[in-house]
Amino acid sequence: MKNKIVLYYVPFPSEKSANKIGNYLLVNEFAVCIQTFKVISNYIWNEKLTKGIEYIAIIKTNKQNEKSVYQYIASNHPYEVPCIIKLNGRVNKKYAFWMNGLIN
After folding, report:
1. pLDDT digit string (tens) for 18-65?
2. Secondary structure class of 35 (helix, strand, coil)
3. Is the pTM above the cut of 0.85?
């Protein structure tokens, strides 16, 4: 269990909104790293093909904090219908040791 990691993949409408949620999770020790990158998304919204810029946040946390991270994102996300994808994984021992030392 020590070398398990949880990643959340979450699109945001702006870099500012991604950073606002990400910084809260970092400062309050729920996550150890937030990576944000700009993408072009194509999707159907209100029965129309839509294309727009979004910012994807990859949020790294451990199993102990996964529920807190999910609840905070879900409660504070600016989208009416946010996409919050959780991925479970394993990391190398050195990264797991560093991660769990910061947020455990």
Report:
1. 999 999 999 999 999 999 999 999 999 999 999 999 999 999 999 999
2. strand
3. yes
How many folded domains does the chain comprise? Answer: 1
Residue 11 contacts residue 84 (beta carbons within 8 Å): no
Report the CATH number that the domain containing residue 31 is assigned in CATH.
3.30.70.120
Q: What are phi and psi of 52, to 5 degrees?
A: -160, 170
- What distance in Å separates the CA atoms of residue 21 and residue 78, rounded to the nearest whole number? 10
Name the maximum alpha-carbon separation found in the chain: 48
How far apart (Å, rounded) are the C-alpha atoms in residues 61 and 33? 8
Angle, alpha carbons 17-79-36 (nearest 5°): 35
- Percent of the chain whose predicted confidence (pLDDT) is above 90: 94
Instruction: Answer yes or no: are the C-beta atoms of 4 and 19 closer than 8 Å.
Output: no
Domain containing 74 equals 4-103
H helices of 5-85, in order, are 15-27, 66-76
